[in-house]
Design goal:
about 900 residues, 4-stranded mixed sheet, alpha+beta, about 10% strand
Length: about 900
């Protein structure tokens, strides 16, 4: 940019004949703003034409230099004893479209005071021209004081670049921030490393976030800048190429980190363009726009946005990997090499890091796997020594995949799976690139994101999270959220088979086709090649092929139905598969998102497991009939009530008031609680009871017994929604004397605090005591993140034994969705008899058993006309504005 127009302004101190300085400044700023906009449009066009990103950043900084220097001449008297410097990223000569323009005016107090009006005018015209200026005015002494107090000030000064200052002033500023006065190298290193670790912790210590921060997140541009600052303070140079000469980095490492820095910078530049404002987080709002702008296109089963994000995750991973090595080398530079502590013939400890003893290590692939075996046996170490990590990276191209390896190497890998800390070994192998070489299919899903809200992590990170969960089940430290899993794990004869199933369960994501089927084929080939027996191979293959079976059965079908249990048990076949599948399912759900595992899912999976185990014990040739199940449940509930001191006669009276279907479908402990709740309640009265679900904070079970009334289900759902509770499951049963027995499993809605059982009980009882038609769903704005994951609604109807109609609904989930659906059902005079609520990220899949009343008020299945009317009402509800 060449802002020649601002240069036409009158000289400093001259207002022009008959003209006011305010008018001159406004005209100057307007012309500068137009010139800056034209220049940025040109830079954007060059960006879209794939111009070199470093050149764009430097040229934009140079263009802004001209404008800032022109403004300085416009506002500051030539004789003023002031010096102007660019600091921070601008000082480094990198200026993104929406980045701050950080300036430092160096002046002694007398000079800054004498020129305060001119400085205020200078900063004002820059702001008016559209530049987001950040500024400070300090003396040399104040620069040193500020650097001592705040290390971020020091890092800004380290990259100070003169804009209106002579060489003497530049040297003075450099001296004010010298290690002699502020932050000696060791102190600087310790502080910046701690700052880096704390920053990483704010982002969950992972770069694999769905909406990553390109600047501040782990593996982002701030990490690269931190390494530059450390190099400048410790070595005396921020030039990465110079670090090769100093022995701090290899030429290949420099090439890698510079390549990934440019890739990250290009993403950030593009993000600023599509956002049109200062934005460092790659939010869902911008991901598709940016992928399109960068030229990505959907290919096969992989979306353009997924390709772009996979590139980011891989860049961030490499920055983290090389950054960790460089931190170690800086530490050694400051503290010197420690005396090595030999471990065995291959490895030793250096300052707590595992290191190869031979500088030419590794000589063969078996020494690579030996590294992970030794690491596992040593327990907690600081990590892998940087020189060994680099040697490992250089050896990766020669490390064979499992198909090309010899039998000895394959057995060595199996030894890792059967040894101590197998999951930790797999995780280390994955993060160091070894697992991707050993299993090429794993490399293909490394950094692969799925553009939805169900999968919080990339495929490889999700896989590692699943393996970590499986490892936790084996731990002696019990997690009460997975109490049953801790009981099942010790029964596994070969835990490594379950780890292999976890490793392969999602390995075929993104290939097109059914990833379970493709992954099962991969798993069979891998197990066979490694020499596992047919039975073991078949188990791993079956688990991968059916890893979604238990989750889908529990969440989408009525697991209180003996027929459902019999079909599931038939598909599973035996107790060994059931144990393995249960553990894999729990680990998979919990590893998909930290928020996904809750009390409802724990209970669902445990109930399905227990019922299936009983069915297998009974024998699949002897399926349990509904009447037999009801009799067993009735006897169990009777025993529980008797234990509470309730007489035989009163138990009989309570049972007479309860629906028979409840004994066919409910749990004994639940039915005993409900029965006890009815004591002292007259026929025709309403009773609401709420209890917490053990070991799950905030999860509640809600029981409502009431005379039936149209709109009752909608009123209950709306009240729970207004109380900040998300319904996970609903069971609606008709009881004797025209009553209802409704049970709801609820958890706190996202962003809402937990409610006490007493508070929910009180609110619900009060609401149901008044007119039901006054209870309406709350109006809400659709959350930002859901606006980018719209699923076209699908509504289906099926007959159910000629008495009821099954309504299936698939649509975008949102707060208050169930309340709105229930309201639509009420408005259409529908009666709800059962409901199964399932949510998968942004996708809601709900099923209702409904009827419509005929002229006599009797329940009838929906005819074609009623189905069409209800479908239209639901579509209007779902496609309209969110409440």
């Amino acid at each position: 940019m060449n802002p020649s127009v601002p240069a036409d302004s009158p000289p400093a101190g001259s207002d022009g004949v008959g003209r006011h300085p305010g008018h001159e400044d406004a005209a100057w700023a307007a012309r500068a703003r137009d010139e800056l906009a034209r220049a940025d449009a040109g830079f954007a066009a060059r960006f879209d034409a794939d111009a070199d990103i470093d050149r764009l950043l430097a040229e934009r900084a140079a263009a802004v230099d001209v404008l800032v220097q022109s403004a300085w001449q416009h506002c500051i008297p030539p004789e003023a004893e002031l010096a102007l410097f660019a600091v921070g990223g601008y000082g480094r000569g990198e200026l993104f479209p929406q980045s701050d323009v950080d300036l430092l005016v160096m002046a002694e107090p007398a000079a800054s005071g004498a020129n305060s009006d001119a400085l205020a005018r200078f900063f004002a015209v820059l702001w008016d021209s559209g530049l987001p200026v950040g500024h400070a005015v300090r003396s040399l002494e104040q620069c040193t004081e500020a650097s001592i107090e705040d290390i971020t000030v020091l890092t800004a000064l380290l990259e100070a670049r003169p804009l209106a200052a002579n060489e003497h002033e530049r040297r003075e500023l450099q001296g004010a921030a010298s290690p002699r006065l502020a932050w000696a190298p060791q102190e600087f290193f310790d502080a910046k490393r701690e700052e880096l670790l704390e920053r990483h912790a704010r982002y969950g210590d992972t770069a694999d976030n769905l909406e990553p921060n390109l600047k501040e997140g782990p593996g982002g541009l701030r990490d690269v800048q931190t390494l530059h600052w450390m190099a400048l303070r410790i070595i005396g140079t921020a030039d990465m190429e110079s670090l090769v000469a100093f022995g701090q980095l290899g030429a290949d490492e420099v090439a890698t980190i510079e390549r990934e820095r440019r890739a990250l910078a290009r993403l950030r530049y593009g993000l600023h363009l599509v956002a049109g404002r200062r934005e460092e987080r790659l939010r869902f709002d911008y991901q598709k726009l940016l992928a399109t702008r960068l030229g990505f296109e959907d290919v096969g089963g992989t979306l353009a946005v997924e390709q772009m994000m996979q590139g980011f995750y891989r860049s961030a991973s490499l920055v983290l990997r090389i950054g960790e090595r460089l931190l170690q080398r800086f530490e050694e530079q400051l503290q010197g090499e420690a005396e090595p502590e030999p471990l065995d013939e291959l490895f030793e400890l250096r300052r707590g890091y595992l290191a190869a003893r031979d500088p030419d290590w590794p000589h063969a692939p078996d020494e690579v796997l030996a590294l992970f075996r030794t690491w596992a046996l040593r327990g907690e170490l600081r990590g892998l020594h940087s020189h060994t990590a680099r040697a490992l990276a250089e050896a990766l191209p020669d490390f064979p995949d499992y198909a090309s390896a010899d039998d000895a190497l394959r057995q060595q890998f199996l030894g890792l799976l059967r040894g101590v800390q197998p999951v930790r070994s797999l995780t280390r192998m994955a993060r160091l690139g070894v697992l991707g070489r050993w299993i090429p299919a794993f490399q293909k899903v490394s950094g692969r994101m799925q553009f939805d809200l169900f999968h919080v992590y990339t495929v490889d990170q999700h896989t590692l999270a699943v393996l970590k969960n499986l490892s936790a089940f084996a731990s002696s430290e019990r997690d009460e959220r997975f109490a049953l899993a801790h009981e099942i794990w010790p029964r596994l004869h070969k835990p490594e088979l379950l780890l292999l199933a976890g490793l392969f369960h999602d390995i075929a994501k993104g290939r097109g086709g059914d990833h379970s089927e493709l992954g099962a084929d991969d798993a069979r080939e891998f197990c066979s090649t490694l020499g596992l027996g047919e039975a073991d191979t078949a188990l791993v293959e079956w688990l991968v092929r059916h890893h979604l079976l238990m989750s889908m059965t529990a969440q989408k079908q009525d697991i209180a139905d003996p027929g459902v249990i019999h079909r599931f048990a038939t598909a599973v076949g035996d107790r060994e598969r059931l144990d393995h599948l249960y553990l894999l399912t729990c680990a998979d759900i919990a590893g998909t998102s930290p928020k996904l595992w809750n009390a409802w899912k724990d209970r669902l999976m445990a109930d399905l497991y227990t019922s299936t185990r009983l069915a297998l014990r009974r024998g699949l040739e002897n399926p349990l009939a509904a009447a037999e199940r009801a009799a067993e449940t009735r006897a169990a509930v009777h025993a529980m009530l008797s234990a509470l001191g309730i007489s035989e006669a009163e138990v009989g009276e309570l049972f007479a008031r309860m629906p028979d279907a409840g004994f066919q479908r409910g749990r004994p402990d639940q039915l005993a609680w409900q029965a006890a709740s009815l004591r002292g309640v007259a026929v025709g009265e309403t009773r609401v009871r709420v209890r917490p679900v053990a070991a799950h904070a905030g999860a509640l079970e809600v029981f409502v017994h009431s005379p039936d009334a149209d709109g009752l289900f909608a009123a209950i759902v709306a009240t729970l929604d207004r109380s900040g509770l998300a319904i996970q499951h609903a069971r609606v049963l008709d009881g004797p004397h025209d009553s209802i027995f409704d049970t709801f499993e609820v958890i706190p809605a996202e962003g809402r605090s937990a409610s006490t059982a007493e508070d929910v009980e009180r609110k619900l009882a009060q609401a149901l005591a008044g007119p039901l038609d006054r209870i309406r769903p709350a109006r809400r704005t659709l959350p930002r993140h859901l606006r980018h994951f719209r699923i076209p609604p699908k509504i289906g109807f099926d007959a159910t034994d000629g008495a009821r109609t099954t309504l299936s609904l698939v649509c975008t989930d949102r707060p208050g969705l169930l309340a709105d659906v229930a309201e639509a059902l009420r408005n259409q005079s529908m009666r709800v008899h059962d409901a199964r609520i399932a949510t998968f990220g942004e996708r809601a899949e709900d099923v209702f058993q409904i009827t419509a009343a005929d002229v006599d008020g009797d329940d009838q299945p929906l005819d074609e006309t009623r189905q069409q009317a209800l479908s239209a009402a639901l579509l209007a509800c779902l496609e309209g504005e969110a409440r």
